Amino acid sequence: MPWTYVNHENDEAYSKSVPLAQTLSEADLPKTEFEARRDLAHWKMAGFVPFASMSWLDRFLDKERASERFEKLDVLMTEIKSRCEDKAYRSAIKRVVSSMPAEAKDRAYIELNIL
User: Fold this and answer.
1) DSSP code of 7?
2) Angle in degrees, 0-180, between the axes of helices 63-83 and 31-43, rounded to the nearest 10
3) DSSP characters for 32-92?
4) What contacts 7, CB < 8 A, 6 or more positions away?
5) CA–CA dist 58, 63 (Å, integer)
6) Residue from 110, 36, 47 nearest 75 by CA
7) In whole angstroms, what is the distance from residue 36 CA to residue 47 CA?
8) pLDDT one-digit tens code per residue, 8-58
9) Residue 105 and residue 52: Cα distance in Å, rounded?
10) Nearest by Cα to 70 from 82, 59, 79
11) How many CB atoms lie within 10 A of CB 79?
12) Neighbour tally for 11: CB within 10 Å
């Protein structure tokens, strides 16, 4: 079934630009895309931001907290990796990541550790 922005659920690129300030529906994108977006948002807010926001000095001085934050990041990353075994989900992750700014640290982390 073709959607507004994706021709096939296994496509790794959008068929046309997805608007930033618009509510999207399942007529616009495959269901797996909404799941991938939800999972990446959770990964970012619950795992990546808490760990990445610690300075190197905080990581050095508070190793226990840094370790806890890294473990949470790793658990969330592992969950997304395991879901990427499904081609449609992996394609959705690739589409979402491709729309992130190229210089974004979370994009680089995902590209290096998940995809």
Assistant:
1) S
2) 170
3) HHHHHHHHHHHHIIIIIHHHHTS-HHHHHH-HHHHHHHHHHHHHHHHHHHHHTTSHHHHHH
4) 15
5) 8
6) 47
7) 15
8) 999 999 999 998 878 998 899 999 999 999 999 999 999 999 999 999 998
9) 9
10) 59
11) 14
12) 18
Contact of 46 with 76, CB cutoff 8 Å: yes
The 10 Å Cβ neighbour count of residue 8 is 12
Print the SS3 string covering 11-36.
Answer: CCCCCCCCCCCCCCCCCCCCHHHHHH
pTM: 0.87
Whose tokens are 């895309």? That residue is 33
Whole-angstrom distance, CA of residue 115 vs CA of residue 113: 6
| Cα–Cα distance for residue pair 55/91, rounded to 1 Å | 33
Question: What tokens does 62 get?
Answer: 């508070």
